[in-house]
Design a protein that fits this description.
The protein is an alpha+beta fold. It has helices at residues 29-37, 54-67, 75-86, 93-114, 127-142, 159-180, and strands at residues 8-12, 18-20, 25-27, 42-46. Helix 4 packs antiparallel against helix 5 and helix 5 (127-142) packs across helix 6. One of its GO terms (biological process) is regulation of DNA-templated transcription.
């Protein structure tokens, strides 16, 4: 992100309804998850007390995705998180996770920078298609870290056409690369 945005302020009313202060409308947890997948930071506060409820709602979003069968976190990671709360002082898990996600985000940004127009490979035919596919792959692999993957799409839901297109483009790129050699 070139410019840091202020977090999107969501206010929770006494009725537990969530209110988006930018668009002046009510939102759901799934809406909030969508904002986060799009790369937006959110802050959720209780209107009456002013308490920051962001952490509570983010955990609730993860729990709802897990309950629908979307494996957000491996069981081992969940066990380690629970164990880290049992250690006096909270252990090092929160700092470790933050550092890991920061490294992942930085690596992703560095990879995208390397694929920029300054790269001599950018002159190669089909480079833009390859770059778009790489961006989509990174977005899917990093999930909620900087984009969003909400789960796999079966071929009967239209994913097959996209997969066929990607396979065709990949074959074309491989053919062009072999001709360059």
């Amino acid at each position: 992100m070139a410019e840091e945005q202020k977090p999107l302020l969501i206010k929770r009313y006494a009725s537990r309804r969530l209110y988006n202060t930018e668009t002046s409308d009510y939102v759901t947890l799934e809406d909030i998850a969508g904002f986060i997948r799009e790369g937006r930071e959110v802050q959720i506060v209780d209107l009456k007390t002013g308490d920051d409820l962001t952490r509570q709602y983010l955990l609730q979003i993860i729990a709802e995705h897990e309950s629908r069968g979307e494996n957000v976190l491996p069981v081992g990671v969940l066990n380690d998180l629970v164990r880290s709360y049992m250690v006096p002082g909270g252990g090092v898990m929160p700092q470790f996770l933050q550092s890991s996600f920061d490294m992942l985000r930085n690596s992703q940004e560095k990879m995208m920078e390397n694929m920029s127009a300054m790269n001599p490979m950018a002159q190669m035919p089909g480079f833009e298609a390859m770059k778009a596919q790489q961006e989509a792959f990174l977005k899917a692999m990093t999930g909620g870290f900087s984009g969003g993957w909400t789960g796999g799409e079966s071929e009967t839901e239209g994913g097959g056409d996209d997969l066929d297109t990607i396979k065709k483009q990949l074959a074309e790129l491989q053919e062009k690369l072999s001709k360059l050699k």
